[in-house]
Amino acid sequence: MDQPPSSWTTSEKPREKCGVFGVYGLDKDLDAARLTYFGLYALQHRGQEGSGIVSSDTERFFIHKGTGLMAHVYDEQDIKKLRGQLAIGHNRYSTSKGTDSKHTQPVVPSDQTVAVAHNGNLPSTRKLEVFLTANGVNIDGLNDSALMAEAIRFYLKRGASLQQALETAYPLFTGAFSLLVMTNNEIAALRDPCGIRPLSIGILDGGYAFSSETCAFDTIHARFLRDVEPGELVIANQNGLRTQQLAKGRLHLDIFEFIYFARPDSVLLGQSVDQVRFNFGVELAREYPVDADVVVPVPDSAIPAAMGFAQESGIPFYHGLIKNRYIGRTFIQPEQHLREWSIHMKLNPLRHVIEGKRIVLVDDSIVRGNTSKRMIELVRKAGAKEVHFAVSSPPYRYPDFYGIDTPDQEKLLAFGRSVSEMNSFLKSDSLHYLSLEGLFRATGRPADDFCAPVFTGVYPVDIAERQDEVRYLPSADESDFIPEPFMALEPMSAR
Q1: How far apart are CA 226 and CA 214, in angstroms?
Q2: One domain, residues 130 and 203
Q3: Of the candidates 55, 104, 142, the residue with the CA atom closest to the CA atom of residue 153
């Protein structure tokens, strides 16, 4: 633990596993796949390494999947082939199973009985593996999503309705899951008992829509109805919507949805994501007054927090780092002498904003810390007199097992290090993290509505054998971030 992490890549933000979207049309002429395509486009930020849509005309499935960004996966002819009034779709990030199309979702077993789109992760698949193996199902090479699909298929093949199949298979799913499940004539939406990943219902002219985020409803002119509740099953068919509580639910939405994953124009738990991020900055400024000249955000997700920090502190806000918005994920490595400064491909400083100034540089989180260190160097080389690094979330100390792609715990900058030690590594003039209490208060919701495992090491759903991967190594100031039963104060007024 004496040496900070040494490896560095151009992006160190934690990555969400995927986003899901689906449409059920009461009108048989509704082009469900086209609407799903535009819904997925609004969710591109949740997964950029593969996409797929499965549609149905109530008699058979039509499938198109591929790797890469949506613009590379679909063309007009692909969408035209996806016929029918039902469709579900999925954008994904790669996991240990790789980026090849074999693992691109929705998962569709070979007999095309069912299609499954999964947002989240099952840290333990032991129950599923034991059940399927005992019933003669070959599970070689199947990931958690495919195992769930096989369990649902098992019951459907034995004459169960979709509702019965999901009710019976549900206890086998251990972890975080927001699922869309489709047969030829029905779409089901369901969440794990803690509602760790979001899933919402929309009303469409002539049908219903389901989405990981509400921003996608706006894209297709659907009206937000409500969230799927933790532990709830919602089924759309020609008779409308029907619901069933499959397990006793207790909401514990992952707080990282507010911090980074969700689009700012989405609404989570009735709260504007943009407003909550603004509130993070307000709380941070209250906790850590800084004598500085300019507040500069790390674009884009930290912009609302930086604006909140500036308003509360009275320090002027400026966009001092300009992002190249045409740089997406790339697997082409920089030439050797550029590698150390490949952050320039994404960010470029405005010298006239930074030079000679005491800068408050605001970001939403630090994972490994190497990119943060390079950004601070970048700002210093642009002439900053001082760089005070303000982070609108607590120290990221623990791994996630619910669908966030994070590095090994030993590679997390905050693991086992104090804020002072992290500040020395980053070479900032000061380092300030938002407290856990301030984080929850900024949401305008009770703290118990959230889980924050990457900050606290507390996992609301049993991670079973994966618990051995978690180490609890306190730093000099770890006690500052031990979870307490905080209750949020009244929501701040909208700006």
Answers
A1: 10
A2: yes
A3: 142
The widest CA-to-CA distance across the chain, in whole angstroms, is 73
Same domain, 231 and 286: no
Q: Identify the domain boundary among 197, 221, 251.
A: 251
For residue 167, tell me if it sits in a domain.
Answer: yes
Contact call for residues 319 and 307 (beta carbons, < 8 A) = no
Q: Do 247 and 280 sit in the same domain of this protein?
A: no
- Known catalytic residue at 194: no
Domain that holds residue 224: 15-251
Q: Clarify whether residues 93 and 239 are in a common domain.
A: yes
- Is 110 in the same domain as 158? yes
Same domain for 318 and 239, yes or no, is no
Q: How confident is the prediction along the chain (495 residues), in pLDDT tens digits per residue?
A: 433 333 333 346 655 569 999 999 999 899 999 999 999 999 999 998 899 999 999 999 999 999 999 999 999 999 999 999 999 999 987 544 445 566 799 999 999 999 999 999 999 999 999 999 999 999 999 999 999 999 999 999 999 999 999 999 999 999 999 999 999 999 999 999 999 999 999 999 989 999 999 999 999 999 999 999 999 999 999 999 999 999 999 999 999 999 999 999 999 999 999 999 999 999 999 999 999 999 999 998 899 999 999 999 999 999 999 988 766 554 455 555 555 556 777 889 999 999 999 999 999 999 999 999 999 999 999 999 999 999 999 999 999 999 887 878 999 999 999 999 999 999 999 999 999 999 999 999 999 999 999 999 999 999 988 999 999 976 555 544 443 333 333 333 334
**Which one of the listed residues 18, 194, 215, 451 is annotated catalytic?**
18
